[in-house]
Amino acid sequence: MQENCSHIGKLGEILLRQGLISNSQLMKVLADQGVTNEAFEDLLVTQHIMTKEQLGKNLANQFIRLGNVLLQKKLITLEQLNEALSKQLETSKRLGLLLTEKGYISAGQLESALKEQYWRQNGFWVID
Fold first, then answer.
1. Domains of the chain, residue spans
2. What phi, psi does 92 have (nearest 5°)?
3. Buried (b) or exposed (e) across 5-22, using 16+ Cβ within 10 A?
4. Which residues touch 93 (CB under 8 Å, ≥6 apart)?
5. For the segment 62-121, what is each residue's pLDDT rounded down to a tens digit?
6. Which of 10, 67, 74, 82 shows the smallest number of beta carbons within 10 Å?
7. What pTM, to 2 d.p., does this model score?
């Protein structure tokens, strides 16, 4: 339950920081959540603060995986990603290390992709 609460707090902070909701909207949703026990995301939609599409797009941006960042930047192919993911199951090495060892990406490209992943997970939009 506590993990869920930290997710809610973080999501609320992210939406607030991005200007997608106001502080008063956030406080109202959190207060209503305490009364109804409805999911934070559901309350945003039922109170017409955000649409499901807006919420889904924002959430997808926040929880992007490293492989997806590299694919979006066209630094690797899907085949290269799948190969590295299979190898990761065998070796328990980090994905970025496997991709650099195979020569698919450079250390600088890995660093850039990891930074992008970090910023997205902390509520900042990354513009190429």
1. 2-62, 66-121
2. 65, 15
3. eeebeebbebbeeeebbe
4. 87, 101
5. 678 899 999 989 999 999 999 999 999 999 899 999 999 999 999 999 999 999 888 877
6. 74
7. 0.58
